[in-house]
Write a structure and sequence with these properties.
Largest sheet: none
Order of helices and strands: HHHHHHHHHHH
Shape: elongated
Number of domains: 2
Helix content: over 70%
CATH class of the largest domain: Mainly Alpha
């Protein structure tokens, strides 16, 4: 039985790896489960044994990387209450820097942002993606809404608007780097760019 479970897990991993390669090469909409089965060297039945449909497989692929909302929730548990924006800054910087550190994460986010057409077949996956976006913006808004931060926002900025600004920069950097990795260095340039963003939002954001 143990050997059977090990073989099943190896097959599942092979299917996910094949999906990454083909989704990146062909785009999600133009890749069928039959294509993935052939590339992984398994039967189509084996694919369906592990994944109910392409949306399920796509979601499983995304689940292999930690998304910013998950990272921010974790950081919020240990971040001092008088400095909630530090957790947000670190999560944003780490999220972009991880593209350079992890080839798999770069592939998966490139697929999500540039190679995925959210057709009706992927409606479930699209809804999950939208939920993560809204969750991240909501978590950001919580940081900007804390009494220690709200009073420091520049005039005319609400916590919600500040949250959307941070999210826009984060997604923009993901898009730009997945399109052209030579545009900036995720390991050295991300921090200064987010500090510039926070200085535009917070009246006393320190110079770095």
């Amino acid at each position: 039985m143990r050997r059977t479970k090990e073989d099943a897990e190896k097959t599942r991993i092979a299917i996910l790896e094949a999906a990454e390669i083909l989704f990146l090469e062909k785009g999600v909409a133009h890749t069928s489960l039959e294509h993935i089965a052939r590339h992984a060297g398994v039967t189509r039945g084996a694919v369906y044994w592990h994944f109910a449909n392409k949306a399920h497989l796509f979601s499983a692929m995304l689940s292999q990387v930690r998304l910013p909302p998950e990272q921010l929730t974790e950081r919020m548990r240990v971040c001092p209450e008088n400095n909630p924006l530090q957790a947000l800054r670190e999560v944003c910087i780490d999220a972009v820097a991880s593209l350079a550190r992890s080839e798999q994460k770069r592939r998966i986010f490139t697929i999500l942002l540039r190679r995925c057409e959210f057709t009706e077949e992927l409606r479930e996956a699209e809804e999950r993606h939208e939920t993560f976006i809204n969750l991240f913006i909501d978590l950001c808004e919580q940081q900007f809404s804390s009494p220690a931060v709200n009073v420091r926002l520049h005039a005319g900025l609400s916590p919600r608007l500040a949250a959307r600004t941070v999210h826009a920069l984060l997604v923009g950097l993901f898009h730009d780097w997945s399109r052209d990795p030579n545009l900036f260095d995720p390991l050295t340039d991300t921090g200064p760019m987010f500090d510039a963003c926070f200085r535009g939002l917070i009246s006393d954001w320190p110079a770095q």
